[in-house]
Amino acid sequence: MIKIDKIIPGGQALGTYDDGRKIFFWNALPGETITDYEITKQKSHYLEAIATKIENPSKFRVEPKDECYLSTSPWQIIAWDYENQLKTELVAEIFREHQINITTPQILTDNKNYYYRNKMEYALYWNNDSNKIELAFHSRGSHRKIPIQKSSIEHPAIFNAAKAIIDDLNSKKAEARKYQSILLRCNQKGEVSGGLYENHKPHPKFNNLTDQILGKNYSYSPNGFFQINLPVYELTLKEIKKHITTEDVLDLYAGVGTIGLSVASNKHLTLVEVDKNAFQELERNCSIRQVNTTSEEHICRRGKYGATEARNDGPEGAFRRSSITLPHPILAKSEDVLDFINSNQTVILDPPRAGCDKKLIDKLLEVAPVKIIYLSCNPATQARDVKILLDKYKIENIKTFNFFPRTPHIENLVILSLK
Fold first, then answer.
1. Domains of the chain from N-terminus onward
2. Which residue has the higher pLDDT, 322 or 381?
3. pLDDT tens digit string along 202-221?
4. Are residues 148 and 139 in contact, defined by beta-carbon separation less than 8 angstroms?
5. Which of 64, 294, 368, 398 has its CA 20 to 30 A from that of 39?
6. Which candidate, 411, 408, 412, places its Cα nearest to that of 13?
7. Distance between CA 54 and CA 279 in Å, rounded?
8. 366 and 341 in contact (C-beta within 8 Å)?
């Protein structure tokens, strides 16, 4: 028998194995006793497992909505209010581990905890008994495929479109082994784009979708990165917008531009993105803003980063703002455009899970912009970076957002202002 102590960052429950090794469980909650389990990973100093038999279940345990919940959303077993409490407590714990003492932050959500995802990728399973293809997910901790009959975290239009693709394949007597997966995405109107990925073939380009975020239109590809939960994302953007206090805004790791263009389109806005496909969408989204600009205002040239810059009266590569408030997209790594950081800016950071490059953090400390707005899908690397920035900055505000209900994933926002 193994007693569960707590939920740890990452979302698993922590217990201690007979020989003293730590064991990390899915399908377990604090205070429960695990009497049977399936080990999914065994290392010299720890194990990972799925609890299969539980004594004294937690008062916070609820019946999962889907049989496939461990594959897609392992926190379906947790009561909704307790999930939100856990996420804020985990953020506070992560920051304390980095010697940053914060009070447990407020969590913001739209309270829609199912049918919220606007993107899903399905595996294809071959049923030897029926000689038909079925939708599937991969079993947590293995490559084994589990056929599914329903899934409740994605928009219903996505699941219905996936079933239609499977029905079409079966009508043609297709074989599952020919295909890698089905990728589908839908906008808030329920319009679906995407389709099949075939094995050993380049991924096809699917038709773009459009969505409104805070009243602005955005175009994006189903294949690329775009926020999974737009209603909660809008709550985040409204919070960010409250803290834009400068006329000059630099949006790093900008993706397709939804943060900067939503909260600072009326500012002197520079957006930096390294992924070429995302950058194409970023330029398209910037053009929606530029289309209303008079021809007299287009005093521009192509800059050294391959994006439109304002008139440059200095040496090659130097940059000076004109009075024109057009968004300026730049194709580059965020750590390679350090000269664009200045002391009168608000800098927006939304890096990948690995966090910010050290060169960028060092430059922020050197130049000391007025405000840094740091949104992260990984509070651990966020706390690591914030710890360094606290040399010159103080935490003005911190809020957690439940972008991914019924999963352990956390989105966290930190507002930093100069001491």
1. 1-61 (2.40.50.140), 119-198 (no CATH), 229-418 (3.40.50.150)
2. 381
3. 999 999 999 999 989 999 99
4. no
5. 64
6. 408
7. 49
8. no
